[in-house]
């Protein structure tokens, strides 16, 4: 069954619903994400809030895209000891098209958005078959 999310900007944003997403997050997704960011030496990261997903199709809607950046990516930039601090955000995607790069160490497909040379957002690809295989265990 496919459910809808009317808060999404794009008709293409996909969602996966499982009976116990806490289990899936803690046992599969969180370790994968933690390892991915550890390899990049990024310690300050978090998932974007639920229902704030974006797809590559939204990039062409410039006004909506910049509104999205300010609302969900740059919403918690702060200054600490005279230095601007950015919490790196990420979104799990089931669409490999959003993730043209492959991490050599983790073999995770991803894409990143940089603000100057600092990463501020990542798409992290998770194969739906890997999720199904995990849930079947």
Structure summary:
The longest helix is centred in the first third of the chain and has 19 residues, at 21-39. This protein has helices spanning 21-39, 62-73, 128-136, and strands at residues 45-47, 78-80, 83-85, 88-93, 101-102, 109-115, 118-125. The chain is α/β, with parallel strands linked by helices and 137 residues long.
Description:
- Helices cover 29% and strands 23% of the residues.
- With 137 residues, the protein is of the alpha/beta class.
- The protein has one domain (21-136).
- It is globular.
- It starts with 20 loop residues before the first helix and ends with a helix.
- The model has no long low-confidence stretch (mean pLDDT 79).
List the helices and strands and how they pair.
Blueprint: H1 21-39, E1 45-47, H2 62-73, E2 78-80, E3 83-85, E4 88-93, E5 101-102, E6 109-115, E7 118-125, H3 128-136
Parallel strand pairs: 1-4, 4-7
Antiparallel strand pairs: 2-3, 5-6, 6-7
Got a strand count? Answer: 7
Number of domains: 1
Number of helices: 3
Integer-rounded radius of gyration: 15 Å
Percentage of β-strand residues: 15-25%
Write the element-wise H/E pattern from the N-terminal end onward.
HEHEEEEEEH
Determine the mean pLDDT.
79
> Judging from the principal axes of the Cα atoms, what is the shape?
globular
């Amino acid at each position: 069954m496919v459910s809808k999310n009317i808060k999404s900007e794009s008709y293409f944003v996909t969602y996966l619903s499982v009976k116990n997403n806490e289990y899936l997050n803690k046992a599969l997704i969180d370790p994968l994400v933690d390892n991915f960011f550890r390899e990049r030496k990024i310690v300050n990261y978090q998932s974007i809030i639920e229902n704030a997903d974006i797809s590559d199709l939204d990039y062409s809607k410039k006004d909506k895209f910049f509104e999205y950046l300010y609302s969900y990516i740059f919403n918690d930039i702060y200054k600490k000891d005279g230095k601007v601090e950015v919490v790196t955000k990420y979104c799990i995607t089931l669409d490999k098209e959003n993730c043209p790069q492959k991490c050599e160490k983790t073999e995770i497909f991803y894409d990143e958005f940089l603000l100057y040379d600092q990463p501020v957002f990542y798409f992290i690809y998770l194969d739906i078959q890997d999720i199904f295989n995990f849930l079947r265990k």
